Amino acid sequence: MSIANTHDLPADLRAIQLETEGHARDYGLDFYETIFEVLDYDEISEIAAFGGFPTRYPHWRFGMEYQQLSKGYRYGLQKIYEMVINNDPCYAYLLRCNQLVDQKLVMAHVYGHNDFFKNNIWFSQTNRKMMDETANHGTRIRSYMERFGEDAVESFIDSCLSLENLIDVYSPHIKRREPVDRYDFQEGEEADPQTSKFQSKAYMDGFINPPSVLKEAQLQQEAERQKAKPSAFPEQPERDVLLFLLEHAPLKTWQHDVLAIIREEAYYFAPQGQTKIMNEGWASFWHSTIMTQKILHPSELLDYADHHSGTMATQPGRLNPYKLGIELLRDVEERWNKGQFGPEWEECDDYETKRRWDTQAGLGRKKIFEVRCIHNDVTFIDTFLTQDFCKRYQLFSFKHNDQNELYEIESREFKKIKERLLFNLTNFGQPIIRVRDGNYRNRGELYLGQEHFGVDLRLDYAQDTIRHLHRLWTRPVHLETTVDGRPTLLSFDGTDHSIRPLGGVSHDAEPKDRRRA
Amino acid sequence: MTLSRKIAAALDENTRAYNLPCVVTLDDGPDRINLEITSLDSVGVALDALEYVASDRKEWTPEALNAWGEKLSKSVSYLLEPLKVLEVDGGAGLAQLRSASPTVRGDVRGYYEVRLDRQGICRFERYVVDPGGRGRRRTPCHLTREVVERLADDIAAGSS
Amino acid sequence: MRKIDRDANRFKQIVRGKIKSDLRKYITHGELIGKTGGEFVSIPLPQIEIPEFRYGDKNRGGVGQGPGDVGTPIGRSGEGESGPGAGEAPGQHILEVELTMDDLAQILGEELALPRIEPKGRANIIEEKDKYTGIRQAGPESLRHFKRTYKKALKRQIASSQYNPRDPLVIPIREDKLYRSWNPITSPQFNAVVLYLMDVSGSMTDDQKEIVRTEAFWIDTWLKSQYDGVTTRYIIHDAVAREVDEHTFYHTRESGGTRISSAYNLANKIIEESHSPMDWNIYVLHFSDGDNWGEDNRQCIGLLRDQLLPKCNLFGYGQVESPYGSGEFYRELEEAFEAVPNMALSEIRNKEGIYESIKEFLGRGR
Fold first, then answer.
1. Is residue C119 part of a domain?
2. Residues 60-99 of B with CB under 8 A from C
């Protein structure tokens, strides 16, 4: 057991850290060395804007995020209380103006997060030295900006970010190519270095035409493609679209590296998105447990979940996902303490019997530790959400009414509630898209397909995203989707978008030179 | 009532005898009506203007003009557009009604304008606004015979 | 310079570029701009976000908590997330960006190529309500002149890098406190007064009033960026004119005929009483549908020529289009005044015409 690293904390906070960490360990929490730092609100906002990594690569989106945070704060909509990084050592930032009571609570909360990061299996493949890694990424990208121009690199990053969610979060580990020697720029593949300065450029202005050198690389790739290549690849539809692009798109070396960086970071952050409810529930569970151990007035116990909601002020009728996490965990603990599980329990349908069921099993604590280890939000909800829970918390499902453009309460049926919840959690509530063919029509066109679950894509966003895909692929790009129940093909050839209904429901690549009039 | 019958009679009588355009004048007791006609047949008339002179008082106050106008806007509901009182100009001794909103035909907007002045004169006209053109110009009102008669009655009724 | 500043500035640049290229749209649809009444405006920028594949609203849903029957509405589309735990995948939301009025004015000036105003040199300006005529450093508390004091304290803070724009707490300290005294100060300040005149007779519709409101907003924005202080006064008229407050200005309809001269007379009176051209840069903007009482036109022209134009930096007449197409006042002015440098005439057909109209008025650069 290492002594808590108290670095440059003021004495009072140092004492709190030691005490809180002691309690956390006593409860069985297991975490990396934790380093706290105390910051002002705008300093924390700054780091929050960077996703927790102050050494992140430069990009205007962080500026945007920062502006939104500042604005939210100004209007009392958002308040960041702390920030925790999944890293070894674990960095956590405290807000300077918090009262001591709050700091205690925050620290306990942090240790909860820390334990979760370290022990939840969905984080097992994440890079625990991400702090260093992002610094490295930042350096690389900055050097590209210096060589090739800020505008060019930033605009390329725009395209990569647009495709950031096209990764395979359920793969057991990140597939990696041979690591590219980052300083090994091959001659002939570089563009003329544009040493353009800080130019005023509207975001929508210009999707930069690739300079002539890119054409060269493209022709090279094309020649290679004509040689022994299977007429259709990938063999299986590929979820990791970014990997596919890395392997097959005609990218310059620096572009390849930038895309690889974006992909790495996307994979790093992915588990955090997949376990949001659980992670917050877990951390809240522990801060409230640890705090009740003290002789604190119960009234001083802030309902942390409410305050810490990263989303906007809770609207009436909306669900606070973090509250859901802690309540469900408590429910699991109670049930396993009372033996309210298993086939007998499931089959019992007498309300009173169920209510009084108590075998004194006492397995609750152990169970939730197990839960925090192996589940993500989807499996967590799927396994542990019960009808009873839904009733107790007055949960309901809502859906969109296309007529009046409002969201309305749909049902209080358990099945429906669970269905809606799971849908929104699966893949972060984002569409699932795969590469089906990298040599569509035998002309090297890119063909993707959406796995449709009854909800259509936003078409305008889809078209804009396809444009970005094209920017990397340089040849026509197609996306098969469903619109209003009809199979539809969205295409972009570099100049024009087209939306065509598909006749038969064909998921195979079209035969060679069939082209609709 | 009598006014409309007089109009009916006058128009029937000399339908073909009029040299158009012309002004047909009719008296109803002390009151008078002038129809500035540009075309006429058994179905209807095209009027440049309809003018009615009420002579039951020397001077109409703005309030009285307003009352007259309000009555008109309520009773005259059978034209292309309903009328509404737009302004009562005390200084000028004038009340003005116009169509509540102009009718658009093609790219031309048309509306009625009714002016009631302190001498008890009611003048009824129609205007159009060309697109892009500056300002407006008067245009003939096309009314059926029955409508002309009814309109005259209503104007007269409103003035009492 | 902090690390975030690079990205924040970059973002700001992009925002400005976007607003500039869409400025016409924002000018035409003034309702888009969220005015908080303070120094910020908020502008929706739907296209600044990076696009990605995401779901639309149809068949979308989620889970909520609380009472309510089936069918009870709980929110509109576009209002935040449509599902829990969906922090990474929000429903559509329009990005609202904040700008200061100054930023906005700058963009306006650049995009419309507005000449910067060179105010006429003025001597010291004191609020007309003041009884005292100067500032000195000692004096009773009750006479503290807050504004000056604050400004001085602010300067001091900035000079000693204590000023935090995110938390602007400025505490005037003893030596900052300035007091009014009997002696006039000698530092010049450039002040402007804008008089808005509007015809509110029966023929002006609500839509037209909205157009006036939008124009006034942009004109204010620009003038406030060019002057240290801008005072605004509002006059409405039909056959008679009266001075009112801003709210009344936009929410009154009269029905008593139209005499534009009444407004010009009142404006002139106000100027003579309170805003001497020696001390003030004067802007008069009149909006009407041009349906003036015919015989009044001559009086108006006389008032303009002899009284108002000699006093004003700018007299602007904006004629909104009447559905009745009857505005001849514009033509009267056109004929009577040829190429007068401080008079700007503009016909505003509809919302789309606001852009050109503002350009016309502010392009005079005085």
1. no
2. 85-92, 94, 96, 98
C103 reaches B (C-beta below 8 A): no
Q: Are residues C140 and C20 in the same domain?
A: no
Edge-to-edge strand list for the sheet holding C34-35: C34-35, C40-44, C96-100
pLDDT for B11-44, tens place per residue? 876 655 677 788 888 888 888 899 999 988 888 8
Q: CA triplet A122, A328, A305: central angle to 5 degrees? A: 85
Per-residue model confidence (pLDDT) at position A508: 45
* Chain C neighbors of A164, CB-CB under 8 A: 52
Q: Where are the domains of chain A?
A: 385-430, 431-501
**pLDDT tens digits, C323-361:** 887 788 998 999 999 888 889 999 998 888 898 999 999
C164/C209 same-domain check:
no
- Alpha-carbon gap, residue A189 to A217, rounded angstroms: 7
Largest CA distance in chain B: 46
Q: Is residue C75 part of a domain?
A: no
Instruction: State which residue of chain C sits closest to A66, comparing Cα positions.
Output: C8
pLDDT of residue A450: 94
The pTM score is: 0.65
- Using a CB-CB cut-off of 8 Å, the residues of chain C touching A319 are 62-65, 84
Distance from the Cα of C192 to chain A's closest Cα (Å) equals 31
Residues C8 and C104 in one domain: yes
Nearest CA in chain A to C48: A203
What is the Cα–Cα distance from A305 to A323, expressed in whole angstroms? 6
- Identify the domain containing residue C172 by its residue range: 134-181
Predicted local distance difference test score (pLDDT) of residue C66 = 80
Residues 6+ apart with CB under 8 A from C120: C281, C313
Q: ipTM of the predicted structure?
A: 0.76
Domain count, chain C: 3
Splitting chain B (160 residues) into consecutive groups of 10 residues, what average pLDDT does each group show?
Answer: 79 70 85 89 89 86 92 93 89 89 87 93 92 79 91 89
Contact between residue B53 and residue B31 where contact means Cβ atoms under 8 Å apart: yes
Question: Closest approach of chain C CAs to the CA of B157, in angstroms?
Answer: 24
Is residue C257 domain-resident? Answer: yes
Is C117 domain-assigned? no
Q: Domain check: are C167 and C297 in the same one?
A: no
